[in-house]
Amino acid sequence: MIEIRWRTLDDEDLGWDSCRCLYAYLTPNRKEILYIGKAWVATLRDRWYKKRAFWKDLEKKRGIKHVIPLIGEVYLFGEQRLTRELLADIESLLINAEKPWGNIQCQKDRISRPSMQVKCTGKWPKRRRMYEDK
């Protein structure tokens, strides 16, 4: 079991300097996940600024100029250890299940990690909270 605790980031939040976590961008009404990503070495702030093409497409194709950023902090239980590969597998599981507008990879095919269970808590915008890899 892996828990992802989601919370909203504001401009002054120290979470912008985090890595080894997930992030998501929501529509202003919080009903749609536009993008899910991971930050391993680069910080969330770094990832935000490297998404120039995403921001252009979002405004041009969807007319959205403002998003709600979330940070997803990973909590592991037992003997689990967070690795780059595990974070990528969690990210791809969520992308595959939710199919955010801005994510192209992992929406159809992905490498699975059988029996992995991910629970999203906190400010996760979806009614569904449990995701299981089969």
Give structural attributes.
134 residues, alpha+beta, six-stranded mixed β-sheet, 3 helices, 24% helix, 28% strand, globular
Detail the topology: elements first, then pairings.
Elements: E1 2-8, E2 21-26, E3 33-39, H1 44-49, H2 52-62, E4 68-76, H3 84-98, E5 117-122, E6 130-132
Parallel strand pairs: 1-5
Antiparallel strand pairs: 1-4, 2-3, 2-4, 5-6
Explain what you see.
There is one protein chain. The protein has three helices and six strands, in the order βββααβαββ. The mean pLDDT is 94. The protein has helices spanning 44-49, 52-62, 84-98; strands spanning 2-8, 21-26, 33-39, 68-76, 117-122, 130-132. It has a six-stranded mixed sheet with strand order 3-2-4-1-5-6, covered by helices on one side. It has one domain. The two termini are 14 Å apart.
Tally the beta strands. 6
Integer tally of domains = 1
Overall, the morphology is globular
Listing every helix as H and every strand as E from the N terminus to the C terminus, the arrangement reads EEEHHEHEE
The span between the termini is 14 Å
Q: Portion of residues in helices?
A: 10-25%
β-strand amount: 25-35%
Unreliable parts? none
Tally of individual helices: 3
Strand count, sense and closure of the main sheet? Answer: 6 strands, mixed
What Rg do the Cα atoms give? 14 Å
Average pLDDT, all residues: 94
SSE-based structural type: alpha+beta
